[in-house]
Amino acid sequence: MVRLRGGAAAAALVLFVVGAGISGCKKDTTGSAGPQGTAAGSAALTAVDSLTVKGRAPKTGYSRVRFGTAWADTDSNKCDTRDDILKRDLKNVKFTGGTCKVVSGVLDPDPYSGKEVTYKRGRSLVDIDHLVALSDAWQKGAKYWDAGKRIALANDPLNLLSVDASTNRSKGDGDTATWLPPNKGYRCTYVAAQVAVKKKYGLWVTGGEKAAMKKVLSDCPGQKLPSGGNPTQAPKRFTAN
After folding, report:
1. 157: number of CA atoms within 13 Å, CB side?
2. Which of 37, 8, 29, 24 shows the shortest CA–CA distance to 183?
């Protein structure tokens, strides 16, 4: 066994403390639902600077139908998008008439509130939220897209999350600057997902939105940037007004 003396011992102690601080960096472990990160390091925070900054365009011309029929089966798996997301996010899932139509399950925990929510088909206790609201997307670039790209965004699992309906209703079409989940433990994951969606689709952000994103993500520099989802163009058989 080699014993360190004087300055060598002090240096070793410093290295140990710094190393422990790095390995003990707090990670977001709240909730299993939603898009999962795949990149290491501070990818989410770095990605914010890659987003174009512009002012919010007028909402003129926006309509949900501009993004196609709700919950279109754009991945052609014979299940609609809503049921795909419920299957992904809920626990204890039960189906009717096969393995597509979800009739019940448990959102545990709900990422937005942190509480447990029971889902039963026909009751509006669970919403499928567009992390980047379609109206927000419209005002930040989607207005100028073709229908195929808008339909893709509306049905991309990267942009969709099962959440408590009552909490989600308070969000409206808010961006990071105007709304964050009450569950503070999920905010880093939530903002990282919005960054990922806007980067993937080339949507811009406002100056205030970018500042809010960086403020949240600066508290979790190890936050991963989600990736994956569907292609950014829906199959040509899907149309929108």
Report:
1. 21
2. 29
One-letter amino acid at 212 equals A
SS3 content of the chain, % helix, strand, coil (to 5): 35, 15, 50
Reply yes or no: is the peptide bond before residue 109 cis, omega within 30 of 0: yes
Q: Where are the beta strands (DSSP E) in the chain?
A: 91-96, 101-107, 117-120, 126-130, 160-164
**Residue of 157, 142, 156, 155 whose CA lies nearest to 203:** 142
Structure tokens at 105: 């399950």
Radius of gyration (C-alpha) of the chain in whole angstroms: 21
Give per-residue pLDDT as tens, 179-227.
Answer: 999 999 999 999 999 999 999 999 999 999 999 999 999 999 899 999 9
